[in-house]
Amino acid sequence: MMAARLSKIVLVAALALTCTLAVFGNVVDPTTNYSFVQHVLSMDTVMPGSGITDPAVQHAAFIVIVAGEAVTALLLWLGVSLMLSRLRAPAARFARAKTWAIAGLSVGFLVWQAGFLGIGGEWFGMWMSKTWNGQEAAFRFAMTVLGVLIYVAMPDPEEPVA
User: Fold this and answer.
1) Most CB within 10 Å of its CB: which of 63, 107, 110, 124?
2) How confident is the model over 97-108, as pLDDT tens digits?
């Protein structure tokens, strides 16, 4: 039981670190990723003139993305902290500690699946762009988050009595 619990904590921490680094990069060097959002929303490499070119809307979209990543990171770190604090607790208490991690993993899945793959990929045709296509990276991250979400949500058995 201890190995499974530690494994769940470490996997959530790894994703929390990844999300934290994404947020950090977007805050410290917003130009790079803002350019990505700008080009995807404007659809300038797939159907020029058919996307959103209003800078205020593009900035708002970028802020929503970074906020989603930040909320994900925050919830995941909270989950890691609570799971660590209840590492040796009975299964029911440890299960309750996983709630924040599950929430963070769910938000993260929504950011990358609904945001990048759904809205960016399908609505704005990101999949058609050879230059501004983040579909592979978003899919990789969404599937990683989903795999960890399934694993973390699995019940933890009680330690067998010797």
Assistant:
1) 124
2) 999 999 999 999
How many beta carbons lie within 10 A of that of residue 123, not counting itself?
12
What sign has the CA pseudo-torsion 46, 48, 49, 54? positive
Contact yes or no for 118/38 (Cβ under 8 A) = no
Residue 76 · residue 15 · CB < 8 Å: yes
Q: pLDDT tens for residues 129-151?
A: 988 999 999 999 999 999 999 99
Token pair of 115, please?
Answer: 């945001």
The Cα–Cα gap between 110 and 104 comes to 10
Distance in angstroms (rounded) separating the CA atoms of residues 129 and 137: 14
Q: What is the model's pTM? A: 0.91
C-alpha distance from residue 71 to each of 45, 58, 100 (Å): 31, 20, 11
